Predict the structure.
Amino acid sequence: MTLLSALTVPAPGTTGAVWLVGAGPGDAELLTLKALRAIEQATVVVVDRLVSDEVLALIPSTTPCIDAGKAPGRHGMKQQDINRLLVDLACAGHRVVRLKGGDPFIFGRGGEEMLALQRAGISCRVVPGITAAAGCAASTGIPLTHRECAQSVQFITGHGKNGAPALDWDALRDPRQTLVFYMGLTWCAELSRGLMDNGRAAHTPVAIIENGTRAGQRVLLTTLEGLARTVAREKPVSPSLLVVGEVVNLCRLATASQPPGHEAALGTGATTAYGA
Ligand code: SAH
């Protein structure tokens, strides 16, 4: 394979392995120490499109980096080809870091990659990352659970296999449960309509968090009935997360996860819009 032959081949006899590593939501300081060490020790890194530039900058310049990224509407490598690439690189003796945005096991197809590696008899280890929901919650001051108003939280994909997601609406009706939609922008009108038709109040607060934890983070506050209009007007871009529930009322755009003085650099001077 051409990609393989372009890479430096490790010493003969070394057994390859793959580390599925969570890169977190963007802010490089949210990377774990284990992730950083794995990146530093890799002989090749395979990245997806959600890995931020700040994190990419931590990959040693001498380490080859393969971009397998998929942007919405633009196709990167097919999942099967990525699986095969990881297997081939490990078979060639590489210490491969497969770097994925957020956590590899939350809407990251990390499970599929792990199974493909296991089937091929390749050693695979997983390093968790801060998932977008946790990162965005911290950087906006929205607690995902809160004694007074949210006893549980659900992480939901807003994108089905063939378009609009087929959701168990009944499981989403509890007003004391926070809902976090990943990949929810495209189908936000269907999502809000489905929630309202199935018992969620039209005035339920919603936060759209664009580029969470990154420079350029923007937070748009709206309600279920105003969601589609707010998205049409403000045109948030990917990556954006939707948080639905009473906890959104606690949003103060807090900067608690950042050391004092870093607010401007991290883009917390975010725009907020309330209502429709
Ligand atoms: N494995 C990732 C999620 C991959 S699905 C994780 O654990 O975070 C991709 C979706 O994640 C995006 O469409 C968006 O909804 C969300 N997302 C990822 N990074 C984000 C960020 N920095 N800000 C807002 N949403 C983000």
